[in-house]
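Workshop exercise sheet. Pairs work together: one partner reads the sequence aloud, the other fills in the structure field after running the prediction. Swap roles for the next sheet.
Pair: D.N. / O.F.
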Amino acid sequence: MQPFHGHHRQVCATDPEAERREENLYPGSNIVRNNFALTDFRELRAAEYGATTQRELKTRSGEVIDRIITETRGAFLAALAETASN
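Structure field:
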């Protein structure tokens, strides 16, 4: 299998793998569909960097861990009580 280079990409209509790969790209580009709906790689790079930075700051501050603990505490305690009663 040849390496995938977005700017040198040629799609063969009989190649199902290439067709599946194309479905994940914005039409006419080599940009993967993304949660930001951005098709310009510079804008996407900046948006991803900003989102990653925010997530890292929340993780370092403990905010993410606190939220996970809060969200899972009820389920954990219920499972613990069920285990103890068996």
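Discussion prompt: The first helix runs from residue 16 to 23. What would you look at next?
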